[in-house]
Amino acid sequence: MDTKKILIIEDDPHLSQLMRGHLEAIGFAVEVAMDGEQGIEALEHAPDLILLDIMLPKMDGLTILKMIREKGDWGAKVPIIIVSNLNPDTDEILKSTAMYTPAYYLVKAELSLQEMTDKVRGALSLA
Amino acid sequence: MRIRSKITLLAGALVFVASAMIVMQYVNERQQTADLLESVRKEREASFSSIVEISGAPLAILATDYSIWDDMVDFVTDPDPQFAQDNLADVTESYNADRVYVYDPSGKPVYAYVNGEDPASLPPLPPEAFDLFRKERTAHFFLVQDGTYVEYRMGTIHPIADSMRETEPRGFLLAGKAWDQEQVARFERFSQSIILAQGDPIPPSGVVFPYSVYSWNGDTASEFYIFSPVPIVSESQAASEKELYLVIGSFVLFLILTFVFLEIFVTNPVSTLTRSIERKDYRRLESLKRSRSEFGTLANIVLGFSEHELVLEGKAKDDAILSAIGSGVMAVDAAGNVTLINAKAEELLGITAASVLGRPAAKAFAAQTHTCEPIKDEDLPLLRALREKKARTDTLICMRADGTRFPAVVTSAPVVLGGSVIGAVQDFRDITNEEAVERAKNDFISLVSHELRTPLTLLRWSVEKMESMTQIQKQELDLLIAPMVSAIERMRSLVSSILDVSRIELGTFAIGNAPVDVPGSVKRILLELAPHIEGKKLSVEESLPALTKTVYSDERLLQIIVSSVLTNAIRYCDMGGRIRVVMSEGEESVELAISNTGPGIPPEEQPKIFTKMFRASNARLLNPDGTGLGLYISKSFMERLGGSISFTSVPGTDTTFTIRIPYGKAS
Question: Side-chain half-sphere of B223: how many Cα atoms within 13 Å?
């Protein structure tokens, strides 16, 4: 089986390190982008799944989401999990991401690494 | 009985009495005059009669003179013309006679002389006349001859020896005088009267009495009216009449004037006052009060006791209370028209009481729901309270007269008196501040909870990782500990910022006062931030000369401030840009200018840069996790230290923050 590639777009280095460490330990290939620009560049490597934070410097998450979805056929289909600290029930920005059909909304503060792994696996199997 | 009726009655009585007196007086005078005139008349009458008698006396003498009787006896039988001429014709004038007649004893005419006419016609006398003459011996009578009244005196002729006329008459002698114009004029002259025939008009101012002349048989030959003027009496009569009119006239005028005077100064004010009190016409009473007479005093007293005054007093007290109330108060009557509005309501709604009192509530109070939907007039709190008859509290958005709006809490309730709803009342207050405080509180809670999430996540994931490891290498441990340390530091910093903010708001933090090496501190901070500077490849220009004057301040606070501003400069500087730190000594303070290149602060957001939790839009983009507290804390701290922070930021050039640190004094 191919090693699946995961792209993490997250500005907090500690968080991204923890996530990367955990996912690599269970056999995924992980690339980390620190902001929107780096994220867009990393799309060239066609990851199998994207973990996206909405609150990013220089370019907001919504714009990045849109750009991913517009990256041709692959972009429209790639599973995206939004990992943020916003409340998906009330936050307007999160609600407006719905049109780009993210696979899941995860709230960092309520998330365990294990849960995150489960969701990643789930999204990949659905793709 | 009312005053006006009394006065009218009094006036009427006075008029009556006075008139009666005057009329009686007049009548009295008239009576006296009449009596006087009556006595004058009698006197004149008597006088006239005697004049006539005196005038007729010579006639009588001629007719009865017995000195020539013996010759007359002969004359009757043998009339001698010469004798007649000498004794009868020629003498007529001296006896005031103008005719003489002689008859024989049988009544046959013997001689006639009339004013020189010889012979003349004889007066028509029937035999009966002579029978009477024979019996009476003398007579005085009138006959009408040729339309003129003639006065006759008759005497029987006897011999001289029978001067007493005791024997049978030997003849009749008649002497007459016509009452012609001359004779009448003579009478009039002597009697100072005018002889009027029947039917003649009677002149004024005199007395009139009748005078009759009789024929030989006693029949009235004629009746004359003798008018005798009485000038003084008639004058006084006329004067009296004039006087009468004058007196009555003046009296009536006087009465009218008195009546009018009383009407104006007594009756009218009394009646006005009474009516005003009866009708509770307080406006009238107020205006009467100003009059300076007793009526003004009365009106004032009445007002003082009136419900009106008490109501006004009560109202004034209520008004004072209403004015003092800090919420807007409005009330309507059962029909929904505004009956009351206090000063606070006027102020809140931007209207005047005068413009809305008595008008429908919707004219004064317009509102929207909390979600900005308009509320129909009939659903306004006051009108709902009227309709539903129960109290309610709503949070609404109220509209001011100028179109601006404000959030308000409105409590409305029906007003019940004697079991029925007579109106409704509402009080409302502007909760803009409360809402702002609420919002700020919520924002703060959101900010804090948000800020805590990332550090918590870091800690949880680190611990989760550790839990899953059966054994751990030092290297791996260090890797795991780093995020935890970072998280802890972030939380500590957050808590510290919150504490600082609260200390600033409560004013409770203590400021130290000791000499501070400002340039040294700044250099140290630059060193601490070196990794960040290098990470963004920034160049740093510094000018931090030693100070000539000592600065006394709180070093810890200064460090926090400078560190915060410098961190911002680094954070918002463009990649590969330039930071400049320049310190200069002023008169009263040291100025530290920290500049960075980069996009700067958007001009429209510059005024809010120092407000708590404010983040400029581009700052959000560059550093989404910032708290917005940094500059607020720095500015507040700086002000507590007696200094200030200001900035300039023009897009395209540097952004410069200038910290002014006062020299202070040793404590």
Answer: 7
